[in-house]
Amino acid sequence: VTGDALSPHKLEQWEGFRPQDTVLINTYGPTEITVSCSAAYVKHDPQARRVSIGKPFANTQLYILDGQGQPVPVGVSGELYIGGAGVGRGYLKLEEQTRERFVEDPFSGQAGARMYRTGDLARWLENGEVEYIGRNDFQVKVRGFRIELGEVEGHLARHAQVQEVVVVAREEAGGEKRLVAYYTGEASVESLRGHAGQGLPAYMQPAAYVGLQALPKTPNGKLDRQALPAPQGGQEGVARGYEAPQGELEAQLAAIWAELLKVERVGRHDSFFELGGHSLL
Fold first, then answer.
1. CA 255 to CA 32: how far, in whole Å?
2. Can you give the pTM of this predicted structure?
3. 133-159: per-residue pLDDT in tens?
């Protein structure tokens, strides 16, 4: 399998119905490397939060580099670069993009050698394999802070009851942005907030969490970010279960919030800020 990140949840499903004596090989490689450049035999591991993309092919070199272009230690995330026989020549009639992505390979020892800058975040594992983390170019700016969405997703994915997770920056009324985490699994909003608070600075913690039965996909199986629903009270899939207001005062408050926040309904356990509210409102 190749083409998109293989999740532990999908691997668990495969283990449930795979024919006996079959194996699953997870491969990685962008089109610019014609096409795969690493592979691993994979099995479901209940403790793993990601699936390894394996070791490089014999005619391929993988480099995980920091912002200064230097190799990072084992276990530290960096940007993944690929060198070797499969590296393409560039993009036809797109010289600027070619210079940006196909760069000199200072590690090969061969004159004129180039490597491809993938834009993917990854890290070396102690067994010599590579773990794919996410896209490096999903960088957003929220309230003046630059945030790598892949780092937030990687941290949330380590929650024991999360199967899949994606984090986006949604633009709210007035042009403000806030982070929203969409996930599948049995995790509660409270446990996810606690987990985020233990490993992420405040500005990187999502403002809302939306639980879904499955993440929306395009016809070719890729994540469809445009189809991710807005976090609204009462909407099916929102992590906080809906419970109707009790008493006249709660009903009045819920009606005011629904009108102000432009949501269909507000439950008695909903949070004003998680629904999009802020101090000016």
1. 54
2. 0.61
3. 877 766 677 777 778 787 888 888 888
